[in-house]
Specification:
alpha+beta; FAD-linked_Oxidoreductases_BP; 26 strands; eight-stranded antiparallel β-sheet; L-gulonolactone oxidase activity; five-stranded mixed β-sheet; D-arabinono-1,4-lactone oxidase activity; 585 residues; ascorbate biosynthesis; single chain
Length: 585
Amino acid sequence: MTNLLWLCLVLWISTATLFTTSSAMPPPNPIKCNDINSNCQLSNSYSVWGDRQTCHAPNIVYPTTEEQLRQELANANKNNLKVKIVTKFSHTIPKLACPSNSKNSLFISTEKYDSTIDINMERLTVTTDGGVGLRKLIDTIEKAGLSLVASTYWEGVTVAGVISTGAHGSSWWGKGGAIHDHVIGLNLIVPVNENEGYAKIIKLTPQDPLFNAAKVSLGLLGIISKVTFQMEPAFKRSITLNFTNDSGIEDEFMEHARKNEFGDIQWYPSRQIAVYRYDNRVPLNTPGDALNDFLGFQSNPILLSRSVRAAEKGFENTRNVGGKCTMASFFVAYKKLIANGLKNNKLIFTGYPVVGHQGKMQSSGSCLYSSSIDITSTCAWDPTINGLFFYESTAIFPSSKFGNFIRDVKKLRDLVKPENMCGVDIYNGFLFRFIKASDAYLGQGEDSVVVDFNYYRASDALTPRFNQDIWEEIEQMAFLKYGAKPHWAKNRNVAFVDVQKKYPKFNKFVAAMVQLDPKNMFSSEWSDEILFGKQEDFKGDGCALEGMCICSEDRHCSPSKGYFCKPGLVYQQAHVCRFSSISTS
């Protein structure tokens, strides 16, 4: 792309995003059926699974009450069907929601099971249907003068889905940033024998032995039908973003987390910029009625999303480092200009601090909501528009190991030159968030730092990516050298290698599976691949290109296109696909 064309695109982006509407064409439903509720296919929000294979079941049902949920599970148990629970959002990237590839399987959707939200003002609790969306829950409790302390940054999730995958916000304060650690009760529908009616509802509280298994259960123990959260009286938050140099970030992250209740850090390694988010609660009478409308979750003009993808794809194909870095520089500068979507008066950013009610500051996702007027905008990754297409890697580190991980990434940056890391800065760089130690068997056992980074994914599975060896080395550095745990709802398959060894109470979770689901109704080869970190013994040609394997031979990369299996540069035990004129494997 010529400099003139790129300048035109930059100007268009800045104009288009500044005046982006808050409503747009909604993302497509993740379930598509050939007939009414039959011959159904499930996709994730990107419409492409890690292995690019389809996920289907012969039938789907839409219960609307807890009793109907129980009846559907009972019918499935009676007829020896495999079952997977699906939601209206489907934002889990691994194939946890895919049933076994057989004719004896069923999707049970919670899309229409979302009517009940019961608030107990005396106990400061709320009990909600598992299918209720996070935004609906937040808005309801805020109207009652209460706040949910922890939530995901992205609000396109359901209550049951968000706790069962260990999703989180950011905090080392109080009960921490993981939402499941604010759960004080839940109902689980499980299969039973014929004498008990084939399915029953069990009510779990923190005193029950199964509670810590059920909080983060990946949909493998039963159907989460009701969830009870501990609330707090409503409060506001005050946020200031400090864009500064990244020197010392490896030594400062702990102090930042301790001083700021909801603080996080965004690191753009190619730009050598760190963004410290000073984010704390303030009294309700503090002036301010702001909105957190995170830039990445706003609706974008369809033509804009396509153009950004086309530009990045062009730079990939031509191995154009300069083009990628120009994109990264612009996007980082623009985020600073608009405070990454913080809006003082719910319209535009006018200055720091940005103060608003907890319910408007804790989570965002304005691109989710439809409008009869605007059908030219949507979420930038909407799979129907050929927009952004990327990987999401998320690693959970013990806080004691995280500083050394950052030091290693900086060493790698210095070796390969910073401009070769521009690809990650086109998205959100590295996002550091903080979660406390959890009692959940599949939760983190110690205070931890969660690192998210997104990066380009090729349209074709066998197309190697520019500088992909850098991101593969960082990925292996995180999960293998430092033993980071993978986020259950994100990541490429290689992140889950030997995952069961990283959880001291993993066997207790497996014991709960055996107790509650002895017929393995909720398990499949796909969920076993994730939960047990199973990798296929057979490694096919090109399997490392999309993270389906770690390369051990050149053919696992793309030797015909100049990509060979090589050792890492800093973490030399890594095996990565690197562009080279000569194979030295």
